[in-house]
């Protein structure tokens, strides 16, 4: 990758790491023009897009003007924010991801928009255009890290490139005046890999959409394929090799009479359908809105074996619906799940770990009910309005 501007010095006067800014919230925040670069956006469905949707909604509601640069998806605007979609091609190893290349028209659109700040989300290809514009025009730059790409490589046979990818990420992120992560674990990991000026962007979840009251008998019947009295295990998310969904099969086998519903889609679906053939597993496909909320609310446990999560937004959504989670003790997940309080964590290196954790979850009905209540209570601590107010506080500090 020929990116000579990687090696320019940061444009901001914030040369040292920003510290003690976990809640830079001010009642005096003024509206801003924000240019947002993202490698993925609607109509794609994933945790990054969910966060960006809510962030854009809240930024626009607060009087800001947002311009989104992303791979073209057919949308021209979202909640009042203009979307500048660029033609893109599918990533060979992951066709769901579209790659849009930087091009001169981006600079012309930015010159008309005159942003107060540029925010690049997961800078990889398109985000480099945002970095270059910010450097050349001395516009304050913020970057955020949401996808643990170096850890993805091993699941696609490219583990030998992890060190190189960290160097490229460091070169891109260190151009920013501030780098944001969505969990304390990832803040530490980025710092350990030489990325500077890193701070925490708090989590958020829609506790009105995702709520225990959204459960329906129809959804329970649908997900269990007509066996509503059976234990219902649930996975919701992208069906990619990096999610390690195969690890759920021994859990399913160990819980008498249990059934598994897998909600979502992705490049690994055909392999998973073969792997789970002959088991009581229902591949549901994508769900959205009230149907997605109902799926969370009717499940007995949310099983999440992924070791590559920077946060794991689906865990918060499950907890908001009162569904306790069983998840790998890895990445940003321990920021959300308190073992034995609102769910259970397991060692992903222990082949029996997820089985024992799930059995423990169901061992006692009274404790199980308390876990559900605690899961909901944890989710209620976080909302998108406060998370976006914090983000705008960061923007103000950088400007």
Describe this structure in words.
Helix 1 crosses helix 14 and helix 7 (217-223) crosses helix 10. With 399 residues, the protein is α/β, with parallel strands linked by helices. It is globular. It has helices spanning 47-61, 104-113, 127-137, 149-152, 162-173, 184-192, 217-223, 249-254, 269-275, 289-298, 313-320, 353-361, 365-379, 384-398; strands at 33-38, 65-71, 77-78, 81-86, 89-91, 94-99, 117-121, 141-145, 178-181, 198-200, 232-236, 259-263, 281-285, 301-304, 325-328, 343-346. It has an 8-stranded mixed sheet with strand order 3-4-2-1-7-8-9-10, with helices on both faces. Helix content is 35%, strand content 19%. It folds into 2 domains: 4-204 and 383-398, Glycogen Phosphorylase B (Rossmann fold, 3-Layer(aba) Sandwich), CATH 3.40.50.2000; 212-379, Glycogen Phosphorylase B (Rossmann fold, 3-Layer(aba) Sandwich). Mean pLDDT is 89; it is low at 1-23. Helix 3 (127-137) links the parallel strand 7 and strand 8.
């Amino acid at each position: 990758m020929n990116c000579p501007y990687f090696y320019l010095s940061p444009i901001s006067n914030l040369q040292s790491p920003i510290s003690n800014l976990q809640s830079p919230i001010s009642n005096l925040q003024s509206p801003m023009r924000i240019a947002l670069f993202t490698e993925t956006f609607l109509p794609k469905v994933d945790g990054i897009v969910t966060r960006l949707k809510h962030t854009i909604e809240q930024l626009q509601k607060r009087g800001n003007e947002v311009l989104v640069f992303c791979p073209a998806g057919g949308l021209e605007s979202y909640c009042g924010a203009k979307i500048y979609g660029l033609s893109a091609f599918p990533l060979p190893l992951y066709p769901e991801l579209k790659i849009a290349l930087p091009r001169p028209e981006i600079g012309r659109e930015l010159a008309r928009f005159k942003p107060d700040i540029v925010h690049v989300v997961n800078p990889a290809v398109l985000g480099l255009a945002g970095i270059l514009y910010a450097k050349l025009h001395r516009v304050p730059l913020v970057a955020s890290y949401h996808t643990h790409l170096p850890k993805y490589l091993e699941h696609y046979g490219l583990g030998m490139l992890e060190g190189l990818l960290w160097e490229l990420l460091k070169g891109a992120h260190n151009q920013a005046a501030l780098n944001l992560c969505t969990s304390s674990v990832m803040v530490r990991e980025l710092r350990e890999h030489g990325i500077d000026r890193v701070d925490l962007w708090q989590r958020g979840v829609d506790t009105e959409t995702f709520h225990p009251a959204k459960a329906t008998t129809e959804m329970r019947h649908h997900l269990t394929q007509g066996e509503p009295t059976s234990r219902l295990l649930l996975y919701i998310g992208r069906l990619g090799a990096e999610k390690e969904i195969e690890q759920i099969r021994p859990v399913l086998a160990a819980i008498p009479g249990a059934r598994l519903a897998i909600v979502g889609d992705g490049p690994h679906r055909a392999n998973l359908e073969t792997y789970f053939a002959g088991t009581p597993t229902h591949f549901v496909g994508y769900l959205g809105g009230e149907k997605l909320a109902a799926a969370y609310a009717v499940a007995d446990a949310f099983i999440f074996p992924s070791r590559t999560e920077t946060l794991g937004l689906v865990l918060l959504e499950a907890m908001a619906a009162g569904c306790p989670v069983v998840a790998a003790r890895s990445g940003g997940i321990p920021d959300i799940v308190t073992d034995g309080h609102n769910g259970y964590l397991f060692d992903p290196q222990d082949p029996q770990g997820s089985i024992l954790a799930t059995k423990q979850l169901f061992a006692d009905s009274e404790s199980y009910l308390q876990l559900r209540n605690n899961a909901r209570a944890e989710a209620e601590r976080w909302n998108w309005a406060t998370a976006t107010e914090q983000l705008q506080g960061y923007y103000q500090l950088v400007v």
